[in-house]
Amino acid sequence: MKKKTLLSWSSGKDSAWALHLLQQDPTIDLAGLFTAVNQKDNRVSMHATRLEMLQHQAEAVGLPVQMINLPDPCTNEQYEYIMGQFIMASAAKGVEVMAFGDLYLKDVRKYREDRMKGTGVEMSFPLWGIPTRQLAEHMLSAGLEAYISSVDLKKVPAHFAGQKWSRELIAEFPQGSDACGENGEIHTVAVGGPMFQKPIPVSVGEVFEQNGFAYADIIPC
């Protein structure tokens, strides 16, 4: 019996690759995506992805996307309450599994697992433990296309924002940076690859700095 599954969709390359792996799993009934959205800016949290782009992504993968609106600012208590309500509502609709694109940060995984205890919903981490250099090569070799939508200026220079994620760009990352940006160096917006039924044409708009981050507006054409 296939398990009804929702995928946490950040809009970036890691969740896109997690989707690709789930699409090939015969035990999974992939019912849709869910995304945390900053209610003030109407953008995907952290990635600053336009909701218009999010809808294009959902159409390109052929799945519905549920948007979880978060206030700005959002306390941890507010976040946990809102997400808890979403998890309970999903379980009531028959969702058995929630999947996440986390790579290796144990504290992040434990936090998720703690929040899910007692809900009756299982968790899946299809990318967990894959060495990130190897993972990046798998993604790029398979044709995954993504643009860097935000960078942490404490870790990566501002000029990386708006650039296409590539082997050449990874080679330019500061020493000690993770190839997939798992430590928050970068966030991306996925626009093409084997998980999509069609690529999404985009242009790169304004790049601006705010609160220690540089953001690039990735705009669907």
First-residue to last-residue Cα separation:
40 Å
The amount of beta strand, in percent, is: 25-35%
Helix content: 25-40%
Tally of helical runs? 6
Q: Stretches where pLDDT falls below 50 for ≥5 residues? A: none
Given helix and strand content, the structural type is alpha/beta
| CATH domain class of the largest domain | Alpha Beta
Say what oligomer this is: single chain
Q: Tell me the CATH topology of the largest domain.
A: Rossmann fold
Shape: globular
The H-level CATH homologous superfamily of the largest domain, spelled out, is HUPs
- At CATH level 2, the architecture of the largest domain is 3-Layer(aba) Sandwich
**Overall structural domain count:** 2
> What is the average of the pLDDT values?
97
Write the H/E string, N to C: EHEEHEHEHEHEHEEE
Question: For the CA atoms, what is the radius of gyration?
Answer: 17 Å
Tally of extended strands? 10
Largest sheet: 6 strands, mixed
